[in-house]
Design brief:
The chain is an alpha+beta fold and 177 residues long. It has helices at 14-24, 29-44, 108-122, 139-147; strands at 4-8, 60-69, 75-84, 91-94, 98-99, 127-133, 151-161, 167-176.
Length: 177
Amino acid sequence: MKGFTLRRLGGSDLRVLEKIAFEIFYPSSLVAREVMQSYRLYFKKGHGNRKIEKSVDDWISIEYYVLVEDKTKRIVGITGLYRINWGSPDSFWLGWFGVDKAFRGRGLGTELLAMTERIAKERGAKYFCIESSDFPANQHAAKLYTEMDYKKFGPIPNYWPGFRNERYGLVIFFKKL
């Protein structure tokens, strides 16, 4: 992707990521806080410098990445992948994923997801899964996933807590790589 570089998430990225997470996952500050908690735990457990196939000491193996605009060094996207170690070794899942709102509409989401799929494939993935919801703000992401040949399963109703006592359905997207 010309003008952008995908690199591993570094500990020094956390302050910048907090702002980006709240923008990407708006209006759900609950999700943004969960994203940041995941990133902090990732470094606390020492995953930041391990490849996913080497991270078998926990129930989940994780790799996180950031998309950086070359010219400004600004982080404009986040992605990751994980494998559940008690599950199939060739099934990977998309980690926290999103593109800064100021950079949407340029095809970066499509490119970022394709790059994440390639990394998963290099790590041995044959299947790639995405956990999502039917929350209205996620509709642009759901459209991207279906455009990239993911099959949609769900929703399982009333799975995720929402705002003002609302609940949203769990949706899984699946693709054979």
